[in-house]
Amino acid sequence: MAVGLDFNGTAQQVNNFVSVSIQFDKPGACKARGSDLRVHFKFIKMKLDTSGLESTAPFFGSSNELLDGFSAAPFFEVPNTTNFDGFQKEAIQMVKPAKGTTTLAFIFKEGVMVAADSRASMGGYISSQSVKKIIEINPYMLGTMAGGAADCQFWHRNLGIKCRLHELANKRRISVTGASKLLANILYSYRGMGLSVGTMIAGWDETGPGLYYVDSEGGRLKGTRFSVGSGSPYAYGVLDNGYRYDMSIEEAAELARRSIYHATFRDGASGGVASVYYVGPDGWKKLSGDDVGELHYKYYPVTPSTVEQEMVEVAGA
Amino acid sequence: MTKQQANWSPYDNNGGSCVAVAGADYCVVAADTRMSTGYSILTRDYSKICKLADKCVMASSGFQADVKALQKLLAARHLIYQQQHNKQMSCPAMGQLLSNTLYYKRFFPYYSFNVLGGLDSEGKGCVFTYDAVGSYERVGYSSQGSGSTLIMPFLDNQLKSPSPLLLPALDAVTPLSESEAVDLVKTVFASATERDIYTGDKLEIVVINAEGIRREYIELRKD
């Protein structure tokens, strides 16, 4: 609550600090019992260091008629670029973490655990808090979405179609290796055209659990633990710390949920609902979907703090 | 050698806002009727809403030339579907068709921000919301266009329902009745008109329910 008040202020300079003491004039403005409120500010007086502006380079040539009588001008190095006003912004943009999301997947003893948040952002605007980032390609394979939502949705659906056609043509299910290769080859052919896809293909086939990371640069990696998106550093921290190969399904699900929660806590581009899926020999099953706001209070419940002084309504005025 | 910059853009933004709200057995789709370019108004009486199928209506804001092309394409595809399947397209099917149509122009997009509203095959209200390249999602309510950043927080406040991603699932249907939803939409546009220069003139409201489709027009501020 903002209160506009008159104040008597005194300022003194003591050494390099300026001390300001403010007293509130109206006794009823603050409802603490009896006393007035005193506030102190300290300002540090700035002493500017101008040594950097003095030129250190010696003059070329012993004497120069034009420069006699002129003092040395400060010399700044100018970057050799065509876009002088915007190159720094471009550099920041280049390093900026793209793909505002957090998704993760890992293989453990019982199968594959896949988890993701559900926030979609357009710049700084949250366009949706309920995006399905875990895409069900077929009953035993899942794909995660990071990057362009339309790109991921469209190409995962396309992959599902290709997998189904493979089943019909070959009378058996496609392997996770095969499915991820199909997707990677498509994305590689569109390389450089601006698609943004950072996905993980997780599934269970004849060789057991499988997990591949595929992206729009054309990369395809086989692995046991991945996290993709702007929140992935935070998720990796929790995931790598708590990971053991021989976990039970409940432990693995809780680890996945916690990792997503911590990522949504620290990353502005991640949030919404943390979904956790498990892929086992019988296919995938959704284990949980929890609002991360509620998860916060579940993990860190509010403890009522002991009250030292209670503020009481003053009768009348 | 600096990259050559284009001195002409194929796109223009004609402004405007669209809203759709889904209920238990109805769907409300609304859009203003102002068409602008830059700071000028081209017309005060342009409909952004198009009936694609019996129980399926689309409202689009953005570049109206692209919207017109999109509407024509979808209408043609619907006609072919009717010839081949001897029935009308359901709203979810039209939703998928629109998504694919938008994505096919991924590298030269339709500058069109759409909301699709209608009844699904069970008669429940459904709303689909899209981005310019086809990513879509079924939701309980949505707004698109120049006023969407003003409208959406208000709709979140009034209509926010539990996310469909929650497990165990919670029912996500808007608890409002049809007349309450229509009043809400009128209020929303009155507010958006106050603060968005591209929204105003007239409001066109389309209500889809089991009886059919009905249309209403409300005057908005013309400044």
TrEMBL record, chain A:
It is found in: Cytoplasm; Nucleus. It comes from the Eukaryota. GO terms for cellular component: cytoplasm; nucleus; proteasome core complex. Pfam families: Proteasome. Keywords: Cytoplasm, Hydrolase, Nucleus, Protease, Proteasome, Threonine protease, Zymogen. The keyword Nucleus applies. The active site is at T101. Belongs to the peptidase T1B family. This is Proteasome subunit beta. It catalyses: Cleavage of peptide bonds with very broad specificity. GO terms for biological process: proteolysis involved in protein catabolic process. SUPFAM superfamilies: N-terminal nucleophile aminohydrolases (Ntn hydrolases). Component of the 20S core complex of the 26S proteasome. The 26S proteasome is composed of a core protease (CP), known as the 20S proteasome, capped at one or both ends by the 19S regulatory particle (RP/PA700). The 20S proteasome core is composed of 28 subunits that are arranged in four stacked rings, resulting in a barrel-shaped structure. The two end rings are each formed by seven alpha subunits, and the two central rings are each formed by seven beta subunits. The catalytic chamber with the active sites is on the inside of the barrel. The proteasome is a multicatalytic proteinase complex which is characterized by its ability to cleave peptides with Arg, Phe, Tyr, Leu, and Glu adjacent to the leaving group at neutral or slightly basic pH. The proteasome has an ATP-dependent proteolytic activity.
TrEMBL record, chain B:
SUPFAM superfamilies: N-terminal nucleophile aminohydrolases (Ntn hydrolases). Transmembrane segments: none annotated. GO terms for cellular component: cytoplasm; nucleus; proteasome core complex. GO terms for biological process: proteolysis involved in protein catabolic process. Keywords: Cytoplasm, Nucleus, Proteasome. It comes from the Eukaryota. It is found in: Cytoplasm; Nucleus. Belongs to the peptidase T1B family. Component of the 20S core complex of the 26S proteasome. The 26S proteasome is composed of a core protease (CP), known as the 20S proteasome, capped at one or both ends by the 19S regulatory particle (RP/PA700). The 20S proteasome core is composed of 28 subunits that are arranged in four stacked rings, resulting in a barrel-shaped structure. The two end rings are each formed by seven alpha subunits, and the two central rings are each formed by seven beta subunits. The catalytic chamber with the active sites is on the inside of the barrel. Component of the proteasome, a multicatalytic proteinase complex which is characterized by its ability to cleave peptides with Arg, Phe, Tyr, Leu, and Glu adjacent to the leaving group at neutral or slightly basic pH. The proteasome has an ATP-dependent proteolytic activity. Non-catalytic component of the proteasome, a multicatalytic proteinase complex which is characterized by its ability to cleave peptides with Arg, Phe, Tyr, Leu, and Glu adjacent to the leaving group at neutral or slightly basic pH. The proteasome has an ATP-dependent proteolytic activity. This is Proteasome subunit beta. It comes from Carpinus fangiana. The lineage of its organism: Eukaryota, Viridiplantae, Streptophyta, Embryophyta, Tracheophyta.
